[in-house]
Amino acid sequence: GLMTALLGFSLLDGAMLLCVCAIGVFGSLGQIAMTRAYGGGNAVIVSILSYSTIIFSTLLGYLIFGEQQSYIAAA
């Protein structure tokens, strides 16, 4: 796309390629797990847990990586 045209193209090294593949595998497994949970569980409970991932992600980002959210991100 545009960013590749502006910044140039670079191949991933082995470690980064492994990370990208792992993100794809774990993301797919998470999506499959959520789909099965919606199909077999109480939809109200599953949806509450699904929306709570936003809170947990923000909290873990702060605790592990020291990320601080802006007011715009909180809205």
UniProtKB/TrEMBL annotation:
This protein's record includes keyword Membrane: yes
Keywords annotated in UniProt: Cell membrane, Membrane, Transmembrane, Transmembrane helix
Keyword Repeat included in the entry's annotation: no
Protein origin, superkingdom: Bacteria
InterPro entries linked to this entry: EmrE-like
TM spans (from-to): 6-29, 41-65
Predominant location category: membrane
Cellular compartment(s): Cell membrane
Coiled-coil portions: none
Membrane-related topology note: Multi-pass membrane protein
Name this protein carries in UniProt: EamA/RhaT family transporter
Species the sequence originates in: Serratia marcescens
